[in-house]
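Can anyone check this?
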Amino acid sequence: MKYAGILAVMLNVGLASVYAQQTPVNVNMSFSGTAAASTIDLKQPNTNTGQEDLAGKGTLGQFTFRVIKASANDPQPTSTCAGLYFQTVAGGGIFRFQDGSLLYVALTGGGDCIDLVHMLAHCTWTFKINGGTGRFQLASGTLTLNETAVPVLADASSNPVFFSETGEITGAVSGVLIGDGQNEQ
């Protein structure tokens, strides 16, 4: 009986040390990285597929982030872009954090505003969180990526093909498992 009581106390202490964060964690992460065309085909009509390989740090710790996205081939009219606006129509990504946890996201909207005068792009994308592994297995929420892309390499026709990327990711994540040395802040 004595051992059953000790076991019950140990179990309660163990469960209290790991729990899903019910209050959304406000996320602010900065990053840098590269972007280029991708050989992955998302099978979206009248689009081209690109990929981004990013790394950074922030509220949830150090991370890498790989994004695959399909963008419209033709510019779209918009009142929010003084240059050429290319809508992003599909995509997603995976964050990998220093503890090995993965966070899965699906791209739900956004696009790239190409500034031909300054030869750069301002990109804004919104991602829906679809869980993950480790501390993110119960995660949900929304993240917004804002970045500046600058061409660093062009092909023989002077078309930019490789870009540097810098920016930030903000939003809120719910359901993050914390405990065992993890801290949502």
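Reply from J.R.: I decoded it. Residues 2-17 form the longest helix (16 residues).
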